[in-house]
Design brief:
Length: 137
């Protein structure tokens, strides 16, 4: 429940900051806002899908990695709220966490466990969204 609350609070913060956050930091606010909202939405979908994975070791490893990515997003939100450019280290933390979550579950049988397929889809979408954030923000 605490993890869900953290994720919900993170999503609300991103949506709230997306319109008022830091227009001085980015050239195209609409594209930046859309990319930021997409990555958080896909990371939340990843979290939900990972919770359904039946292989407990892989599930816990993926959750740990995704939590690291969420911590990076939280740091970036703090940077934006302070009127600063997002930390390069936090961006790397988000990317590494997403890639680590993919690595933790990519060898599982997605046919036997549909949550694996759902998680991989949303994790890969999150990685693509991250590229959009870099390009547009």
């Amino acid at each position: 429940m605490a993890r869900f609350t953290f994720i919900t609070a993170l999503a609300v913060a991103v949506f709230a900051l997306s319109s008022a956050a830091a227009p001085v930091i980015r050239a195209d606010s609409a594209a930046c806002d859309a990319a930021r909202q997409a990555i958080v939405s896909d990371m939340i979908a990843s979290h939900k899908a990972i919770k359904g994975i039946t292989d407990m070791d892989a599930k816990h490893a993926a959750q740990k990695q995704l939590n690291g990515a969420f911590q990076g997003v939280s740091t970036i939100i703090g940077n934006i709220k302070a009127g600063e450019a997002p930390s390069a280290d936090a961006r790397t933390q988000v990317e590494d966490g997403l890639k680590g979550a993919v690595a933790a579950i990519q060898d599982l049988d997605a046919t036997a466990d549909p949550a694996v397929s759902d998680a991989l889809t949303s994790l890969n979408a999150s990685l693509a969204d991250g590229s959009d954030v870099i390009a547009n923000c």
